[in-house]
Write a structure and sequence with these properties.
It is a single chain. The chain is of the alpha/beta class. It folds into 4 domains: 172 residues, 3-Layer(aba) Sandwich (Molybdenum Cofactor Biosythetic Enzyme, Chain A); 59 residues, Molybdopterin biosynthesis moea protein, domain 2 (Alpha-Beta Complex); 89 residues, Beta Complex (Molybdopterin biosynthesis moeA protein, domain 3), CATH 2.170.190.11; 75 residues, MoeA, C-terminal, domain IV (Beta-clip). The protein has 7 helices and 28 strands. Strands 7-4-6-5-9-8 form a 6-stranded mixed β-sheet. Helix 1 packs across helix 7 and helix 4 packs parallel to helix 7.
Length: 411
């Protein structure tokens, strides 16, 4: 067995980021990873515009205006948003203007309508002394043509999508999503639509891992259930290795008579780097590297068959690998660690680094971890519902008492 930290380091050293890039419509780019740094194509704002409903004026006309001695100006134009002003403001004049509208030539200050009084139809009284250039968004104030906007490796979430749209991008280059082959091994496994016979188990791993891969930004390739037959397993594993960027299999990695995965990986030319990790749940973990004809390499994860062990392996080891593979910057490869107060005693046997699942919440301004109820056996996936964190008990530590700070992996 190797330590968890060494396993993570080894796995990341095996992964090569994908270099393939594709162009996608901005409407389809949410969650994708930017492949090339982006600079602004336009000045933003595109023109001087008003940040308020009010009146566009010359500051020199109203610099002495007060509530007791307001300055009266003639309204010569009304400028709604989207309208091109037709007049240049002269001394003694004002333009009625609305939020987002272009500031007319000659005007250098906006006076909020709350500080004005309309007089007759075409005149307005300015009742305060405004600040020069107030409430005008200057052209290029936020970004000028050529200014850097987003770095390569940025995840395109709603804010990033808005930035790209506002600065003239309708199509964007992103890294291709990793294709992840998923297979489950075992004669006892059946699909959810089948009637269970004695000794059979529904293959939940196929669905859980596909959901994990999708959430991590990959494309799951579900290869189904493979029986404990060496020839059939060899064929499916070979196909997975040739067709995907990363492979996840569950089951067949322990020391049973029907656990063939490691032997087959070696036969197929895999460079096996990890066979077992000092982690609970999830000790049996096989990780191998394969070289492909196109000079690329892929990583094969042989995960345990128990559902919780498989997911813990994904959250702890596959997630960082996926982040690197997908093109995220190095700062995003590591898991998200948070310190929290445990609301219950957390116990372990101390022999392996132990991960206990539960819920992380912010209560009275402090992070608090609450253990999921029920058994924490690796086959019990029922109490995984609503899990968003894993509390970690280090090796040689048998208990972390309630009220003490615990290291938590956010998932």
């Amino acid at each position: 067995m190797i330590p968890v930290s060494q396993a993570e380091k080894t796995i990341l050293s095996l992964v090569q980021p994908l270099s393939e890039v594709e162009s996608v419509d901005l409407t389809l780019a949410t969650g994708r990873i930017l492949a090339k740094s982006i600079s602004s194509q336009v000045d933003f704002p595109h023109w001087d515009n008003s940040a308020m409903d009010g009146y566009a004026v010359k500051f020199s006309d109203v610099r002495s205006s007060t509530p007791k001695h307001p300055i009266t100006l003639e309204i010569v134009e009304e400028i709604p948003a989207g309208y091109q002003p037709q007049r240049e403001i002269q001394s003694g004049e004002a333009a009625r203007i609305f939020t987002g509208a272009i500031v007319p030539a000659g005007a250098d200050t906006i006076v909020m309508q709350e500080h004005t009084q309309r007089v007759q139809k075409n005149f307005v009284k300015i009742q305060i002394t405004p600040t020069a250039k107030s409430f005008i968004r200057q052209r290029g104030e936020y970004a000028k043509i050529g200014d850097p906007l987003l770095a390569a490796g940025a995840v395109l979430n709603p804010a990033e999508i808005a930035i790209l749209a506002a600065t003239g991008f309708s199509e964007i280059k992103v890294y291709c999503r990793p294709r992840v082959a998923i297979l489950s091994t075992g004669d006892e496994l059946v699909t959810p639509d089948q009637t269970l016979k004695p000794g059979q188990i529904v293959d939940s791993n196929q669905y859980a891992l596909a959901a994990f891969v999708t959430q991590a930004g990959g494309i799951p390739i579900r290869m189904g259930i493979v029986p404990d037959d060496r020839a059939k397993l060899t064929a499916v594993m070979s196909e997975a290795i040739e067709s995907a960027d990363l492979v996840l299999s569950t089951g067949g990695v322990s020391v049973g008579d029907y656990d063939y995965v490691e032997e087959i990986l070696a036969e197929l030319g895999g460079d096996i780097r990890i066979r077992a990790v000092a982690i609970k749940p999830g000790k049996p973990l096989t990780v191998a590297k394969f070289k492909r004809d196109n000079n690329r390499s892929i990583v094969y994860f042989g995960l345990p068959g128990n559902p919780v062990s498989a997911l813990v392996g994904c959250w702890r080891f596959v997630q960082p690998a996926m982040a690197k593979l997908a093109g995220l910057p190095k700062s995003n490869w590591q898991p998200t660690w948070i310190e929290a107060i445990t609301s219950q005693d957390l116990t372990a046997d101390g022999k392996r680094e132990t991960y206990l699942w539960g819920k992380l919440e912010l209560i009275d301004g402090r992070n608090q971890f609450s253990l999921s109820g029920g058994s924490h056996a690796s086959a019990n996936l029922i109490n995984l519902a609503s899990t968003n964190a894993l509390a970690v008990i280090p090796i040689d530590n048998n208990m972390i008492a309630a009220g003490v700070v615990v290291k938590v992996l956010a998932i």
